[in-house]
Amino acid sequence: MLRVRNQLVKASGQCLSLARSSNSFKPVIARLQHTKTTETRPGIFSPFFSPTDEEQKEEKARRNYPRQTAYDTAKCKSPPTRNKMLVRDFIDDSLYNPNYGYFSKQAVIFSPETDFEFNNMSDHLEFMNILGQLYKDIEGEADEVDEVARQVWHTPTELFKPWYGYAIAKYLVSEYKLNLFPHKDLIIYEMGAGNGTLMMNILDYIQQNEPAVYKRTQYNIIEISGKLAERQSQRQDVKEAKDQHKCVKIINKSIFDWDIHVPDQCFFLGMEVIDNFAHDLIRYDLETLRPYQALVSTDAKGDYTEVYEPVGNDALISKYLAMRDQTRYRSPVLSRQLWLKCLQSLPLAPNMTSPEFIPTKLFMLLETLKTHFPQHRLVLSDFSELPDSVDGVDAPVVQTRYRGTMVPCSTYMVQPGWFDIFFPTNFELLRDLYLLVCRGSRAGNDKTVKVLTHREFCERYGDVERTTTKSGENPMLMYYENMKMILT
């Protein structure tokens, strides 16, 4: 049985096989059982692969567990047991539950007190040494409080401030002046603004370099975290009253709960946010290629088990897969038909493909933009690939920090609240989905929707001389090579 205890543990073996269910939506428990039906068949290996009496009793109990969503568990003071949740709800609860979620108690965004003077550094190695010492100081303070301390993570916005924010501002202003100025306001919505650094850098740039545009600027932050929303408000307090930005409005709400219609032409920003959008998990039946969706079942002891049911009773998963089919995207797990057929003929072969994580919450964002921000221009940036991920297509990295050491995990089924779970984004697929959902056009029919690498964007809009070291190396261009942007 695929099971992960609620401590730092390794996942079950790589030889996981899944029992296929019937055509109903009755869940099938994932177990180390290499049969292709749910029938019990006598044979030489039966004593080794047949479920024990305890496992049979547990399976029967699991079938009666209530099905819950992240909204249902939001009021829980501790992670619930005796329930089952779609993978996206399990991950969403692990990250965002207001009482025990990772972002509610563990995450700290690294923000140096002073900006780095890259022009005075010898090379990028000196920058890394300075950065490493700052990290050591921060983590040392955290370790004095708890062995499993708050995780400190950084973004290009913080490391390369204000120059990265200025690059974003330069792009926004150039597009605004090209299409809207001076007849309409520059309206900006930023989703998940962290410490508020990007907001400050963008507005500082516009105030200093484009005063006429600044007079027509409105900046709105949509922030799910109450603590971060408070921190963003406090950023203004450190400035003199005459320098404070009066055009800022902070809305403490999840973008997925957004219910306000915004008819204005606006820019919608999401910088290093979508990697923490929860995904669903599917596998395909090797014989029929029918997709099955995964749920996480939690027993009375807090142990986790994956169970599977045919795709069909969750509207979001079904709609996403139907829309993805229109892009002519083909899952990598289905790309090797000959190998799949050979796999079926092997003794003790699995009856399902390897896992695939699908970005259903990101798809929800696109639908929210279409419905509530019909005239938006989108600017999204995040990881396009990640090392050390768990097994599967577009699989996440799951990690925590223990006694000053980053600990990667081999499963997403971990104790809620203690682990960061973040995903890569297939930006080319995202572009095609965006065209279908928000523009009503197929891939390639709209050249205004572009995917750029982090480096390409910074070279085009950034003041790269200000982040160049004496050796000629440029950390802002060299780092984050696994990040991309989508601009619409």
From TrEMBL:
- Compartments, record wording: Mitochondrion
Specify one Pfam family. Methyltransf_28
The catalytic activity, as recorded, is: L-arginyl-[protein] + 2 S-adenosyl-L-methionine = N(omega),N(omega)'-dimethyl-L-arginyl-[protein] + 2 S-adenosyl-L-homocysteine + 2 H(+)
- Disordered: annotated segments: 46-72
Q: Which domain of life is it from?
A: Eukaryota
Q: Which Gene3D superfamilies match?
A: 3.40.50.12710
Does the keyword field hold Cell membrane? no
Work out whether the entry's keyword set contains Mitochondrion: yes
UniProt KW keywords: Methyltransferase, Mitochondrion, Transferase
Query: What does the record give as EC number?
Result: 2.1.1.320
Which InterPro entries does UniProt cross-reference here? NDUFAF7 (IPR003788), NDUFAF7_sf (IPR038375), SAM-dependent_MTases_sf (IPR029063)
Physiological role: Arginine methyltransferase involved in the assembly or stability of mitochondrial NADH:ubiquinone oxidoreductase complex (complex I).
Concerning its family, UniProt says: Belongs to the NDUFAF7 family.
State what protein this is by name.
Answer: Protein arginine methyltransferase NDUFAF7
